[in-house]
Amino acid sequence: MNAIARFDLNNAATYPSRRVEAWKYSDLARILRETPKLSATTDIKGSGPFAALGGEVLSLANGHGSIDYSAADQVTVQVRLVSDAESTGHTARVSIKTQAGAKLLLLESHEGRGDYVAHNRIDIDVAAGAEVTRIVLIDEPELAVSVTEAEVNLAAGAKYRQTVLTTGARLQRFETRLAHHAHGADARMDGLYLLKGARHTDLTSVVDHLEAHGTTGQLTKGVARETSRGVFQGKIVVQRGADGTDARMAHNALIDGERAEIDAKPELIIYADEVQCAHGNTVGTLDEAALFYMQARGITAEEARALLTEAFLNEVVDRIEQDDVREVVTQWLTARL
Fold first, then answer.
1. Taking the CA of residue 331 as centre, how many other CA atoms within 13 Å lie in the half-sphere pointing to its CB?
2. Any idea where the domains of the chain sit in the sequence?
3. Cα separation, 87 vs 5, whole angstroms
């Protein structure tokens, strides 16, 4: 899989537009017409959404500095990517590696204030027999523009679990490119978006099965309210020789507003024999009969919508295996319904 080189924030000529197929739903060039000035340094305030879970805390503010971390044994690491700027831009770089057999719980938060432009580039290498669980909470302001590009590489027998939750921004794209480089790698990549107002989010992923007997499971759920726009683009590629691959992808979304929009593009490209691959996509609305039933029993329309939305989205949250992490994520989501 090629290294990430989507665009350079310092060169407006490289900003992708809707003419680029992978960016057809998220026209960055239309939003960013010129290179933003570099964001100044800023202090990091507060303790972040994962504070109660402990572990080592690694922080970047407005892209100044970089993070290079190597995990051994069983560890918890919090990575805080903080933006606090007005009409400026910055790039943050993070590199995470594991040693063979290590077990890493990576708690990643994107926190922001202002109308900044943020470009986050993240590399994650999971060594043979190692396990990485990556939980990402993205809480950015309505006027922000942000692009996160992550490249994940799995060695033999590596295990990777990813869950991303976001509330969107003016234009927000979260992209994960994952490669099964060796026999028997196992990945699960889940996502959840809850949008309101005019917010936009784009959850894009490309999974490349290069070797035999790899597994990938992917579940993404989303809700778009008012005039917001949710985008899901998922591609799974099974290369020649990757026999025994088991790859499954599903995207389910609700539109809760007459002017809200959902764009979904699931893809499977298969060059190998003896594989099990499937994808599915549904877009609908909240069940009016269920809403009526709940209101008839004294629940307000607003409460009923929140309860049904929470029940719909919780399937993604419930797949988080760590009880304490799942509780924190549930509280984060409930507060934003």
1. 8
2. 12-286
3. 24
Within the chain, strands assigned E span 37-38, 56-61, 67-71, 74-85, 88-98, 103-114, 117-126, 131-139, 145-154, 159-166, 171-180, 186-195, 200-209, 215-225, 229-238, 246-256, 261-270, 276-284
Q: Is 134 exposed, middle or buried (0-12, 13-18, 19+ CB in 10 A)?
A: buried
Is a pLDDT exceeding 60 seen at residue 5? no
Neighbours of 257 (CB within 10 A): 17
Structure tokens, 235 = 């591609």
DSSP 207: E
User: What torsion do the CA atoms of 208, 210, 211, 216 make, to the nearest 10 degrees?
Assistant: 0
Given a contact cutoff of 8 angstroms between Cβ atoms, the answer to whether 177 and 203 are in contact is no
pLDDT band at 2 (very low <50, low <70, confident <90, very high): very low
- Does the structure show a pLDDT above 70 at 3? no
